[in-house]
Amino acid sequence: MSQYDLQDVISIKEWLEKESYLPNNFDDFVLEKFLHSCYGSLERTKKCIEKFCTTRSVMSEVYTSRDPLSENIKTAFSITNVTTYEAGDYEIVIHQVEDPTLERYQFYDILKSFTLHIDIWLKTQKFLPEGHIIILDMKSYSLRIIPKINVFFLREFFLYLLEAMPVRVKQIYGINAPPFYDKLYALVKPALPTEICNIIKFLPDCESLHKWIDKKYLPTEYGGEAPSMKKQHEDWVSQIQAERDMFLNDNMWKADLKKKPKTNELNSMNGSFKTLCID
């Protein structure tokens, strides 16, 4: 183990075996990622994993029918770029929609394709960063996107990413923000923890990132020195498609809510942000 005692991972695995409604097929390194995101706290890690598994069970819109070779998923892959870059002790995660007319944009398919990226990242990215920097590229966002999205689902999905994923979010940048970004943000902001609202910055263009992030950590598309974002995205997609059989399993890492004890209801974590400290 690279950071946490092997006994910590064993303790989490023993706990999972006792909770019959939770899956017990997590790789050791995936469990270590959860431990790392919760700063080694076993109790917080258990809550995080429980929310991760139970939320996947109720979000059928994005956690079923995820065949990476289906036409709808291939279309979603073709109009997005999802990439990660190591930035010293930190990890940068970029999500970009590349569809100016938004004619091919399908809300649930975009989120569904993103979950495939997340799952392959969980299984293969052997890096435990001190924190995560999230970059949301809004260059294709226009007023046309508003009737295409389900705001209520988006808020819940965003909270799920923040509170149930094994990440330590330290900064979120919305780049190439359109003039009306404040109206879009206003739809989501009420559901976000105050700590998260305080670390969100909207920037007018990608060059503005250079003030906050060293160019050597940014992709060439953003005037940086790191490898191409599009090339890395294509490599991720190839890897996802090679693991197709895994993603055809609609029960992957899901809780069996029918087996969940009535007395063991998951405490609401909305607004808690896993009680992590934000630098």
Automatic annotation (TrEMBL):
Domain CRAL-TRIO: 82-230
Protein name per Swiss-Prot or TrEMBL: CRAL-TRIO domain-containing protein
PROSITE patterns in UniProt: CRAL_TRIO
GO annotations of cellular component type: membrane
GO molecular function: phosphatidylinositol bisphosphate binding
Superkingdom, natural source: Eukaryota
Gene3D superfamilies: CRAL-TRIO lipid binding domain (3.40.525.10)
Organism in which the protein naturally occurs: Parnassius mnemosyne (clouded apollo)
